[in-house]
Design goal:
Blueprint (H helix, E strand, L loop, with lengths): L6 H4 L4 E7 L8 E7 L6 E10 L2 H8 L14 E9 L11 E4 L9 H4 L24 E3 L4 E2 L11 E5 L3 E3 L6 H4 L5 H12 L7 E5 L3 H13 L3 E5 L4 H7 L5 E3 L6 H9 L5 E4 L4 H9 L7 E4 L13 H5 L3 E4 L7 H13 L9 E6 L3 H9 L5 E5 L4
Parallel strand pairs: 10-11, 10-13, 11-12, 13-14, 14-15, 16-17
Antiparallel strand pairs: 1-2, 2-6, 3-4, 3-8, 3-17, 4-5, 5-9, 6-7
Family: Belongs to the zinc-containing alcohol dehydrogenase family. Class-III subfamily.
EC number: 1.1.1.1
GO molecular function, one term: alcohol dehydrogenase (NAD+) activity
């Protein structure tokens, strides 16, 4: 697609552009030209400015069985500009800067209208197709259908997203930082802020110090936690995590987390967060939270059918376990709050970006994440 082309020239027509297509599990993405159909009613076509690689992208890229499906356009953490809109789209217009999110918010269902959760009954889970029609907006040049990913598919110069998955933002925010609010940082910060409701002066233990775990630390710091303990097998994460509020570090290879954290906190942390997606770690985190009021929040997801086993006596004694989808945030309202805190220099976003690369080097981003060398690698769709 010619970068000089005006939106009015492409409105209502298919766009030919580049995409990084995942054709086989675990194999390098293929940069190729594809066709992106115009948006249907309730849909928005977006020109992606930049995108970043999340651990979830990596997990689905490796996965061989359903819900993995190929060929597919991965990517779900991004920022872009509205190129055109379908009928019945009123909240954004051509030229608006938007963040697409895997988390939907239709604003119409009982869940979206409730303050008790951030679920959406109308679009309960991300789809491999457009949610209202069950069809794809992507085809390769031979006409083969390319599947969507988490209702976003940002590893392409243009994508189509339902309006329930779009949040309009201030265009003045640096794209490389704003795109992180599309998933990772919002999820971690929100888990501390919205899901756990971490209190000032409380103690927090975070199991797994990837970008999500460090975002939890950032959220706990913003909430005023007095002590934030990081648990990870990589000791280097402590130095990295200090900028996000970590005060202590536990290496599980050299001790029993349960007894150490209980000793450090005088009976258990007020809040524990599991950020890896391992059943054993979820149970360990629960064991480390305080009886009476301790709350364990699970952000990671283990394999299908996995089950957590908890001591019934701990439940009776008041310890709770809960999950957190997108940090409990409602995208269309809560992302704006986070952006304002960033503008006020309270929320750290820039510090999560460790690498910036061109779209043609997207497979390098996968290598960096696999090798544990990056928090967030931002991928720019053009060289501008």
């Amino acid at each position: 697609m010619d970068d000089e082309k005006l939106p009015s020239e492409s409105r209502g027509k298919p766009i030919r552009c580049r995409a990084a297509v995942s054709r086989k599990p675990g194999e390098p993405l293929v940069i190729e030209e594809i066709m992106v159909a115009p948006p249907m009613p309730h849909e928005v076509r977006i020109r992606i400015i930049c995108t970043s690689l999340c651990q979830t992208d990596l997990s689905f890229w490796k996965m061989k069985d359903f819900p993995a499906i190929f060929p597919r356009i991965l990517g779900h953490e991004a920022i872009g500009v509205v190129e055109s809109v379908g009928e019945d789209v009123n909240e954004v217009t051509e030229g608006d800067t938007v963040i697409p999110t895997f988390k939907s918010e239709c604003g119409e269902c009982a869940d979206c209208k409730s303050t008790r959760s951030n679920l959406c009954a109308k679009f309960p889970r991300p789809s491999i197709f457009m949610p209202r029609y069950g069809t794809s907006r992507f085809t390769d040049l031979s006409g083969e259908v390319l599947y969507h990913f988490l209702s976003v598919s940002s590893f392409t110069e243009y994508t189509v997203v339902d309006k329930a998955h779009i949040t309009k933002i201030d265009p003045a925010i640096p794209p490389s930082s704003a795109c992180l609010l599309s998933c990772g940082v919002s999820t971690g910060v929100g888990a501390a802020w919205r899901t756990a409701k971490v209190e000032k002066g409380s103690t927090v233990a975070i199991f797994g110090l990837g970008s999500i775990g460090l975002a939890v630390a950032e959220g706990a710091r913003l909430c005023g936690a007095a002590r934030i303990i990081g648990v990870d097998v990589n000791r280097d994460k402590f130095e990295i995590g200090k900028k996000f509020g970590l005060t202590d570090f536990v290496d599980p290879a050299n001790c029993e987390n349960n007894s150490v954290i209980k000793e450090m906190t005088g009976g258990g942390a007020d809040y524990c967060f599991e950020c890896v997606g391992l059943i054993t770690l979820m149970q360990e985190a629960y064991a480390c939270c305080r009886k009476g009021w301790g709350k364990t929040v699970v952000l990671g997801m283990d394999g299908p059918g996995s089950q957590v086993t908890l001591p019934s006596l701990d439940i009776i004694f008041g310890k709770t376990l809960t999950g957190s989808l997108f940090g409990g945030l409602k995208p269309k309202s809560d992302i704006a709050v986070l952006i304002n805190r960033y503008k006020d220099k309270e929320l750290q976003l820039d510090e999560f970006v460790t690498h910036e690369i061109r779209f043609e080097e997207i497979n390098k981003a996968f290598d960096l994440l696999i090798e544990g060398k990056c928090l967030r690698c931002v991928i720019y769709m053009t060289n501008e």
